């Protein structure tokens, strides 16, 4: 099992745009309205912190590899190598480069109409990290940090996310 996790602040930011771009989901007039719903667990697919907390129970199992979105953005080639090794797949240098090229956000966004139809425009927005800084107020940032600590702060997944997000930012 490959478990991909992401900075909860960027998850919230991305999900805000996702909700507002998909007519079948509740939309939000303002970021502040969305933030309240996100923090009070009124989201389609549940609470991200609870999701992380539940997966944390399995994080040490040998058939689970946890990787962060931020790790993949920082060094996609290393991420692909690690994933291939975990799955027991040997890749030639040429195959590795092909996967790295095709898994870039820009490549996936460019092909999103072919691969995901109209849904591609909603699914592939920016693909960056730290976009949350353009949305969160100082108070919202503090609330998110507190919720993070309460739910997953001292856990394996929480420690991995904290390192990727706060120590490498």
UniProtKB/TrEMBL annotation:
The keyword Transferase applies. GO terms for molecular function: sulfotransferase activity. Keywords: Transferase. Gene3D superfamilies: P-loop containing nucleotide triphosphate hydrolases. It holds the Pfam family Sulfotransfer_1. Residues 1-155 form the Sulfotransferase domain. It comes from the Eukaryota. Its EC number is 2.8.2.-. Belongs to the sulfotransferase 1 family. This is Sulfotransferase. It comes from Sclerurus mexicanus (tawny-throated leaftosser). The lineage of its organism: Eukaryota, Metazoa, Chordata, Craniata, Vertebrata.
